[in-house]
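pls design
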């Protein structure tokens, strides 16, 4: 059901004629916008699990196999999500709907944060977890390195694919998820 809703949302975004870069540009703002994603309530419970990516190593996915990301403009101590409004449409938060179970992840690192709209979002080592709308099938990692601030999560909550989890991958033409040159908001 999640992948069907995700596909519908991506189709609506594509059909609306709004360039993805314009939506992504809103991701740098933590202003007063407290909108929520258009994601309807999920079934009770969330599962975080690990998967192997040939380029990024071990990453975290949801129960359907979709990559989960962290946003460097968020905070992990204390946890705080700064992706709201139009940002949360492109980067839907992984909502904490019921119990959160883990496979291959230390359960002590999993928590939640209350978002600006009052909903609960899953955190990993304090970092709020998101999906990326252009990831249309399990295993996609198109959000890796977008804007130099979005990275797939490792099981420890670090940035995937970066030495020590701390050096961002450069955004550019070789990264299909990177913004177009000159895109504001980063």
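designed seq:
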């Amino acid at each position: 059901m999640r992948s069907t809703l995700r596909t519908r949302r991506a189709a609506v975004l594509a059909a609306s004629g709004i360039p993805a870069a314009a939506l992504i540009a809103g991701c740098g703002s933590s202003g007063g916008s407290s909108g929520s994603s258009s994601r309807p309530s999920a079934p009770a419970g969330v599962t975080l699990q690990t998967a192997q990516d040939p380029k990024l190593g071990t990453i975290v996915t949801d129960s359907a196999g979709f990559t989960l990301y962290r946003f460097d403009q968020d905070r992990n101590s204390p946890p705080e999500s700064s992706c709201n409004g139009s940002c949360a449409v492109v980067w839907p938060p992984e909502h904490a709907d019921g119990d959160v179970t883990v496979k291959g992840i230390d359960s002590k690192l999993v928590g939640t944060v209350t978002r600006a709209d009052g909903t609960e979002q899953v955190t990993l080592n304090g970092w709020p977890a998101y999906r990326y709308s252009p990831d249309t099938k399990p295993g996609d990692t198109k959000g890796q390195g977008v804007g130099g601030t979005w990275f797939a999560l490792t099981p420890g909550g670090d940035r995937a694919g970066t030495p020590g989890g701390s050096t961002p991958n450069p955004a550019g033409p070789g990264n299909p998820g990177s913004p177009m040159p000159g895109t504001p908001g980063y």
